[in-house]
Amino acid sequence: MLGIAVTYSTRDGHPLDVTNLRQGTDFMATVKITNPGKRGYYEQMALTQIFPSGWEVINTRLMESDSAFHNSPFTYMDVRDDRVYTYFNLEENKTHTYNVLLNAAYLGHYYLPAVNCEAMYDNTIQAFLPGKWVDISTK
Q1: DSSP-assigned letter for residue 106
Q2: Distance, CA of 78 to chain centre
Q3: How far apart are CA 57 and CA 42, in angstroms?
Q4: How many CB atoms lie within 10 A of CB 100?
């Protein structure tokens, strides 16, 4: 049992519908993972976020504004061109929040893959949200 929720917002926190974005828009994906406490402490969790090829991941660790986007504690975060892998432990009845800054870079129609979180060594602890189609336009 694991809870997962994803929201998208502008850089100043206003909700954003990512199914139709204007090219050049900076925005944030926020994932909240919740341990309902029914099975104790969750160890070695892996959050997988893969983004459409029209979106660019903005690696805030390379910028001086890294602290502007607070993330919950994690063991390791692997930031790549089109995806972010986050590894962490999650205490009972706690929620962790992870943010990724993105840019709608390239015009087109793309598929946003599912967001997945699971315990790496216990396949009974997992949650995912299905993917959807997204567009980037000049409007």
Answers
A1: S
A2: 12
A3: 28
A4: 23
